Amino acid sequence: MATTNSTSFDLDYDPAKHYEQLSSEFAKYHTDPLNVFVHFLTTPLGMIGAFSLMRYYTKSSSLAMTVTGLYLISLLPILPSGEFLGTALLCGLIVLASKLIRLTLWTGFGLLVAGYVLQDVAHWYTGEKTFQSTYSAGGQIDLANPIFWAQSFLEHCYYLLPLVVHSAMPFLTLPAEFKAILDAPVPPSMQQLQVFAWFLGPLICFTLGSYCIDSKNSMCLFPGTPYFYRVLRCSLTKPNNYPEEESIEKESKKKDIQIIRGWTMDQGPAEETSSHWWYRDLPAAPKEAFDRIATSSQIQRMFRSLFGESHYCLDVIEGMNEIYVSGPSRQDEAMNSDHVFFSRHVDGPWGFVPFVSVYRCLVGMDKNLLVR
């Protein structure tokens, strides 16, 4: 007896047509305005809970933003323009809310469960069957066909946001011309973005890794914008109001500052221009004092207030360290090295290195009386 096994594939599968059929079927179970309205609230609510859990474990919004970006790229050739715009708007609001609210582990989990349960309550109250019941043998889970149920449930979850937007579209009162635009496919030029997903995916990941690396940068993506929020301050000789700080006299770096300043003045710095000495060229005494300042507990705590120890490495870049003496005020020059030290800018290529954030640390030896 001979047996043959074969697997068939639908070579004519069109994801846009499949979504059109899926959304039409979904709409049959979401016709009541109250049910649609509740879904429009509870679906984002549950996703805020899910993204909050993601943020709770990663201590960052970067993963949520990366997943959202890749998700939207995958939907470009599938959704009509209106549903894509609505989905993109909801995704942005969900990520922003999960970042600003900062829920705890159990609160995020509770919000996720509440979003699911409240949708069932809305269906029960309005008398409409759930879409999930169509592939769950009338219930929640079809144990007789677990693989089919799992595939259908995952597809339902994947398209849930655009499906909710689709069910809300008929309730919008719009001019016919505008509605025609929203019902049309996403412009081909935008759909081409998915073709380059292999490039855009890592690029989105690197961009978020670079410019959302510290929590104060919020949703910044453009290289120039984060630096308005990157200024950190501490004192090497006075208390910094840290709860764990007990013996400030022991930690004070006042003597080290005096050692470096004394050595510097002994070198006779020029009075008419600025002067500098690289860290690597310093003799033993000022070099050791420099090391103690660079690795001081005050500076460590200052950075750890923004970069947690569990997720970030903190290193000193010795090759860029120097002792610098500013020159007299040169008002006739629009920009010089003294002014640059106090201006917000990216020094070298560091702003474009993924997952790295470099700070320039200025340790004042005495009061700044010349540079403005």
Report on this structure.
The chain is an all-alpha fold and 372 residues long. It folds into 2 domains: 15-195, no CATH class; 221-372, no CATH class. 51% of the residues lie in helices and 2% in strands. The chain has helices at residues 15-27, 33-58, 62-75, 81-101, 105-126, 146-158, 160-168, 176-183, 188-195, 197-211, 248-251, 254-266, 284-294, 297-304, 337-341; strands spanning 275-278, 322-325. A two-stranded antiparallel ribbon has the order 1-2. It is elongated. The N and C termini lie far apart (93 Å). Residues 1-9, 218-227 and 245-249 have low confidence and may be disordered.
What is the strand and helix layout of this fold?
Elements: H1 15-27, H2 33-58, H3 62-75, H4 81-101, H5 105-126, H6 146-158, H7 160-168, H8 176-183, H9 188-195, H10 197-211, H11 248-251, H12 254-266, E1 275-278, H13 284-294, H14 297-304, E2 322-325, H15 337-341
Antiparallel strand pairs: 1-2
Helix pairs in contact: 2-4, 2-5, 2-7, 3-4, 3-10, 4-7, 12-13
Give short descriptive properties of this protein.
single chain; 372 residues; mainly alpha; two-stranded antiparallel sheet; 2 strands; 51% helix; elongated
Total beta-strand segments = 2
Estimate percent helicity. Answer: 40-55%
Overall SS class? mainly alpha
The amount of beta strand, in percent, is under 5%
Poorly predicted spans? 1-9, 218-227, 245-249
In total, the number of domains comes to 2
Give the CA-CA distance, first to last residue: 93 Å
Mean pLDDT: 80
Query: In which order are the strands of the major sheet placed?
Result: 1-2
Mind summarizing the main beta sheet? 2 strands, antiparallel
Shape: elongated
Radius of gyration: 29 Å
Q: Which sequence of SSEs, written as H and E, runs from N to C?
A: HHHHHHHHHHHHEHHEH
Count of helices? 15
